[in-house]
Design brief:
With 331 residues, the chain is mainly alpha-helical. It has helices at residues 9-39, 42-51, 53-64, 67-91, 101-104, 106-111, 116-119, 122-136, 145-179, 184-192, 196-217, 219-235, 238-245, 249-273, 278-296, 300-322, 325-329. The chain crosses the membrane at residues 20-41, 68-91, 103-121.
Length: 331
């Protein structure tokens, strides 16, 4: 795409002066169109003649009778503006092709046609020029009261419209779910089953990571619990009690308790350290696959529960959408 040429400050000022002139002419032309349209209404025409007969006669002779000629003078200026804008767009390479300008500014081109419906398009010329001035930083229409009012009611209208469309769509989805032959089976067949191995792998990896992280953070507490459990078990054993009553039996009992505690802690430590092994990973994956297959089995009762859950979720979503956010925003 050709690069856009930079515009000099003097040329920018010339563009600005011309744009302001066009805005004034468009507003004057639109005001004249409005006044002349009202002038054609018999009640307003008679009232105008009764209130200001001299001004009425001057307007009818000098303006209303020559309205088409005056409008053509405005059209000539507007057409000149279109041609100048087209030439500037070509010179400054605003668009990818030289003939894009009249299509982009179609409202300017059609507004030059001196017919009733096309004259209204001249309003868009004012909006376009204001947008250009806004982009140049010369005005800030967002601070205008009229703009804030229009933006407010546009926001309200857009929110109400989108909310109604969304609620209607959710109603249709609920009806489809209720009238369908079951949603769980198609979901399992078309969505879950093609991703079964990936889901099983993800579940097994999460289980391994969870077990490994839990043991790493609570290793000391786990071993302390194992030692305490071994000690309580041995202290409650009748054989150990009888052994303690023998000469040197208490020392032997304490030695056995220490040995058993160390053995149990080592077994637990080795077992949990084996969580990182490929054998444990394979075991967890097989367990996850078995549980996954059991979870995928459905029956009519499961279908009914699934559909009801989906319908209730959609109903909750409809309630959230129905909340009129603009009331809180513009309170």
């Amino acid at each position: 795409m050709p690069a856009t040429r930079t515009t000099s400050p003097a040329l920018e000022r010339a563009h600005l002066v011309w744009d302001l002139l066009i805005i004034v002419l468009v507003i004057a032309n639109l005001a004249l169109l409005l006044f002349d349209s009202l002038f054609l209404l018999p009640p307003l025409n008679a009232a105008f003649e009764a209130v200001a007969p001299g001004l009425y006669g001057a307007y009818e002779r000098n303006i209303h009778s020559n309205f088409l000629t005056i409008d053509l003078a405005f059209v000539a200026v507007f057409l000149l503006d279109v041609l100048l804008g087209w030439a500037v767009a070509i010179a400054e390479r605003h668009y990818h092709r030289w003939f894009f300008y009249p299509f982009v500014h179609w409202y300017d081109v059609l507004g030059c046609i001196p017919l009733g419906g096309f004259r209204l398009l001249r309003i868009l010329r004012v909006i376009s020029l204001l947008h250009r001035l806004q982009r140049m930083g010369l005005i800030d229409v967002r601070r205008w009261y009229l703009c804030s009012v229009v933006a407010k009611y546009y926001d309200i209208l857009l929110e109400e419209l989108t909310d109604r469309i969304a609620i209607r769509m959710l109603d249709n989805v609920q009806q489809e779910i209720r009238a369908g032959d079951g949603l769980s089976a198609p979901v399992i067949e078309r969505i879950v089953q093609p991703r079964k191995q990936a889901l099983i792998r993800e579940i097994s990896q999460r289980l391994e990571a969870m077990a490994g992280d839990a043991y790493a953070h609570h290793r000391d507490d786990t071993l302390r619990y194992v030692r305490g459990l071994v000690g309580r078990t041995l202290s409650e054993s009748p054989e150990i009690r009888r052994l303690g009553r023998l000469p040197l039996g208490s020392q032997v009992a304490r030695g056995l308790e220490a040995s058993f505690s160390d053995l149990a802690c080592r077994l637990v430590d080795e077992a949990l350290a084996g969580l990182q092994s490929s054998e444990f990973s394979s075991l967890v994956e097989h367990l996850a696959e078995s549980g996954f297959d059991a979870w995928l089995r459905t029956d009519p009762h499961t279908e009914q529960i699934t559909e009801q859950v989906l319908v209730d979720m959609l109903e909750l979503l409809k309630e959230q959408i129905a909340v009129k956010g603009w009331q809180h925003k513009y309170d």
